[in-house]
Design goal:
Number of strands: 0
Number of helices: 5
Radius of gyration: 17 Å
Distance between the termini: 12 Å
Number of domains: 1
Length: 136
């Protein structure tokens, strides 16, 4: 397997937007008065629930199977991280959006690296991206 990443611009857009939206909403909901463990679990569930409606427009534009799992994972991770962060201190909306965007980028990379690793070399592939190996 080579070290190149194979994901589309649509994946990046969908995950960064989802991460930013979920993070902003969680930052507005959770405050420093929350218990960190409770905030983590509540924000995780809300992150997945908030990510689900975003799969519809992004799935229509970029393909449902390629978008649904990364978006749900991004929503869960953004919710958890920003929920715990907001339970420790006040988090501004812009800071939360930046954190959610970064989490979306990381999630996209992780999902596609694991996908390439699980798929392995593809039989009948016409180029390196489809083949999944480093025969150039």
């Amino acid at each position: 397997m080579d070290n190149r990443l194979y994901f589309s611009l649509g994946d990046l857009v969908a995950n960064t937007v989802t991460g930013a939206v979920v993070a902003c909403l969680i930052a507005l909901l959770v405050g420093p008065g929350w218990n960190m463990l409770v905030a983590m679990f509540v924000a995780m569930a809300l992150g997945m629930a908030l990510g689900l409606p975003l799969t519809i427009p992004f799935g229509y534009l970029f393909g449902a199977m390629e978008i649904m799992v990364p978006i749900m994972l991004t929503g869960m991770a953004s919710g958890m991280v920003v929920g715990m962060w907001a339970a420790m201190e006040e988090v501004g909306v812009l800071s939360a959006a930046m954190g959610g965007t970064i989490i979306g980028l990381i999630t996209t990379n992780v999902v596609w690296l694991v996908n390439q690793r699980l798929r392995g070399p593809q039989i009948g592939a016409t180029n390196d991206t489809e083949r999944g190996d480093d025969h150039a």
